[in-house]
Specification:
Helices cover 40% and strands 4% of the residues. The protein is built from 10 helices and 3 strands; from the N terminus they run ααααααααααβββ. It has a 3-stranded antiparallel sheet, with no helix packed on it.
C-alpha cells in the first residue's frame, strides 16, 4: 500500500485512531455475514445457501490453441458458401461483421461460437458435433450460411436476420417482429450495412421492399442511449454484486484517503449527503483502475 502523509492541523490527534478503523470496516463489509442458528433448532445450519431453482450454467467453449485463420481466408469461405447456398454475399458479410468481425475463435457469453456465432444446439440440428467443431472456420461458415439460407427462404431477409439473432421461437411469439432491444440494434446494424453495400437508403421504400421490414432510427439505439452496442452489459443484481465483492483480492487494493479529512469528516452523524459530497475513501487497483 502506498503511504500517505497524515492529516495536519486541528483535530489530527482525533483523526489518527479513527483511520485505523477504516481497514477493519472494509474487511467487515467485504466478508459475508456469519450464519446463526435459530433458537430451539439443534441442527447445524448449512455451510452455504444454494438456490435450487437457479439454472446451472455450463462452462463456455474454449477456443483451440491454434492461430486464427486470416480475415482473407474467412472472407473467401463466406463467398464460397454464400454462393453454394444461394445467398447474397453482401448479406452474409454484413451479418458476420456484426457477429464476430471475422474472428473464428470468438465465443459469446451465451456460448455461440466462431465466425457466424453458431449455437451448438443449432449446429447439432445440422449434424455437426461436438461444439468444438465450430471453431473450424469452414465448418462454422458452412453451418451458419446453411441456417441463414433456411431462415431467408422461410421469412425473407429482414425477419431472417431477426431470427438469426433471437431464434425462430421469438420471431413467431412476437408476430414476426422481435422487440428485444439487442435484436433491434443488431438487425439495424446488419441491414443498414447490407443496404449500404447495395446503394440503398436505409429508411427508403426500396429498403422496405428489399428487406421486408421497416427500419427506423430508433432501432439503432433501442434499450439505451445513442450508440448502444450489442454487448452492452446489464446492471448487476444485488446477489451478483455481493458475489463479485467476495472475489476481490484485497492484496491488489490500495486505500486512498483525502489528506484534508478532519475529525468532523469521520463523524457519521455530521455527514452532509448531497450532489457536492465526495467519498471519504476509494479502493483502487494499481494503475488507477477502480475495483468493481
Amino acid at each position: 500500500m502506498c503511504s500517505r502523509p497524515g492529516p495536519r492541523g486541528r483535530g489530527a490527534a482525533a483523526v489518527a485512531p479513527a483511520l485505523l478503523l477504516v481497514p477493519a470496516l472494509l474487511m467487515a463489509a467485504l466478508l459475508p455475514a456469519p450464519v446463526v442458528a435459530s433458537a430451539g433448532n439443534d441442527a447445524a445450519p448449512p455451510a452455504a445457501s444454494v438456490d435450487e431453482t437457479a439454472p446451472v450454467r455450463q462452462a463456455l467453449p474454449r477456443p483451440p490453441d491454434t492461430p486464427c485463420p486470416s480475415r482473407a481466408t474467412v472472407r473467401s469461405l463466406i463467398d464460397r458458401y454464400a454462393t453454394r447456398y444461394g445467398l447474397e454475399r453482401d448479406l452474409v458479410h454484413a451479418l458476420v461483421r456484426a457477429e464476430s468481425a471475422y474472428n473464428a475463435h470468438a465465443v459469446s457469453p451465451a456460448g455461440a461460437i466462431g465466425v457466424m456465432q453458431v449455437m451448438p444446439e443449432t449446429a447439432a440440428s445440422y449434424g455437426v458435433r461436438p461444439a468444438a467443431a465450430l471453431f473450424d472456420a469452414e465448418t462454422n461458415v458452412r453451418v451458419g450460411t446453411r441456417h441463414l439460407k433456411k431462415l431467408v427462404s422461410r421469412y425473407g431477409i429482414g425477419k431472417a436476420v431477426m431470427a438469426y439473432n433471437a431464434g425462430e421461437g421469438a420471431l413467431k411469439r412476437q408476430g414476426g417482429f422481435v422487440s428485444y432491444p439487442e435484436t433491434q440494434r443488431y438487425t439495424h446494424a446488419v441491414l443498414s450495412n447490407y443496404l449500404r453495400s447495395k446503394g440503398i437508403a436505409t429508411y427508403s421504400a426500396e429498403a422496405r421492399a428489399v428487406t421486408g421490414i421497416t427500419l427506423t432510427p430508433a432501432m439503432a439505439s433501442a434499450g439505451g442511449g445513442a450508440g448502444a452496442g450489442f454487448g452492452r452489459r446489464r446492471p448487476l443484481t444485488p446477489r451478483e454484486q455481493a458475489r463479485r465483492m467476495r472475489r476481490v483480492d484485497l492484496s491488489t487494493l490500495s486505500l486512498k484517503i483525502r489528506p484534508s479529512l478532519t475529525d468532523r469528516a469521520l463523524d457519521p452523524s455530521a455527514l452532509d449527503a448531497g450532489p457536492e459530497s465526495k467519498p471519504m475513501f476509494v479502493l483502487e487497483r494499481p494503475g488507477g483502475i477502480k475495483a468493481d
